[in-house]
Specification:
The protein contains 12 helices and 7 strands. It is of the alpha/beta class. It has 2 domains: 3-159, Rossmann fold (3-Layer(aba) Sandwich); 184-259, 2-Layer Sandwich (Alpha-Beta Plaits), CATH 3.30.70.2210. The strands form 2 sheets. Strands 3-2-1-4 form a 4-stranded parallel beta sheet, with helices on both faces. Strands 5-6-7 form a 3-stranded mixed beta sheet. It is globular and about 55 Å long.
Length: 272
């Protein structure tokens, strides 16, 4: 039995499911497997809120069409949760609690047997408080159960023709705000405007980190190496149009999850 067969068999055993679907490679792979395993008894659902970056919903819709799964949206209200707005280290717990409460309620109303996520085996080694929320709502992680890590996720997605197989990670806009700084609608919108402005210059992989009046731009290593004074000035001007008074371009290349890195190292040291 191939890995794909194994995963499809697991999903087929559920009979029906709702997939928490962002359009990223992980959830897209699970959605594609679900579509193959149980066809019209699989539903992909994307959560829409101020934390969703512009373009992500359109991307998710396009992926859903390509893999042949029914797709719907729901509106989530994580910003109404005090724990989410406070933006402590457990912010993702409050975000995922909001998501899974809504998806579980939808599944119950419409008689879907389970809610599935795109969490993969590599997530177990990172700081992922959202997994606690998933456990509380009995969310199933097919990729974790099968021991499928990120590299294999991309390999399987390519083999199945999933359009987002090479899509860079694109977590919610709140991930650009340092822990301890409150999350609000204005900050999320400002980050979104700034990143859109830089993308309009031709940069695809980037983050604009939000430090109040200062926006710090992180570019891919390739783009950083090719940065000329003229391009630097263009990026600074673009981010300034979003309302940042001070704009910094980091000398270090973008690395997904960098805000978690030091905290994760501290946890590892504490548990050793």
């Amino acid at each position: 039995m191939t890995r794909t067969d194994e995963l499809e068999s697991r999903i087929a055993s559920l009979g029906s499911c709702v997939v928490a679907f962002s359009g990223g490679v992980d959830s897209s792979l699970v959605a594609a497997l679900a579509a193959r395993a149980i066809a019209d008894r699989a539903l992909a659902v994307t959560a829409v809120s101020p934390a969703l970056a512009t373009g992500e919903l359109d991307g998710a819709r396009a992926v859903a069409v390509a893999i042949g799964i029914r797709h719907e949206t729901i509106t989530t209200a994580e910003l109404e949760r005090e724990g989410y707005r406070a933006n402590d280290r457990d912010r993702c717990y409050h975000c995922k609690s909001e998501l899974y409460e809504n998806l579980s309620a939808l599944a119950a109303r419409r008689r879907y047997a389970a809610v599935l996520s795109g969490a993969n085996a590599d997530d177990l080694g990172d700081w992922r408080p959202g997994l606690r929320a998933a456990e509380e709502h009995r969310v199933i992680h097919p990729l974790v159960e099968a021991g499928v890590g990120k590299a294999e996720v991309r390999e399987l997605a390519r083999a199945l023709g999933v359009p987002s197989a090479q899509k860079p990670a694109s977590p919610c806009l709140a991930s650009r705000i340092p822990y301890g700084t409150a999350v609000d609608v204005d900050a999320l919108a400002q980050i979104d405007r700034a990143e859109l402005a830089v993308k309009a210059l031709g940069y695809g992989v980037l983050r604009v980190r939000h430090y109040g009046e200062r926006g710090r731009v992180e570019l891919s290593e390739r783009d950083l190496d090719a940065l000329t004074p003229e391009r630097r000035d263009a990026i600074v001007a673009a981010v300034a149009t979003a309302g940042y008074e001070d704009v910094e371009i980091s000398d270090e290349p973008f690395r997904s999850g960098s805000l978690n890195a030091s905290f994760t190292r501290q946890l590892a040291i504490a548990s050793s």
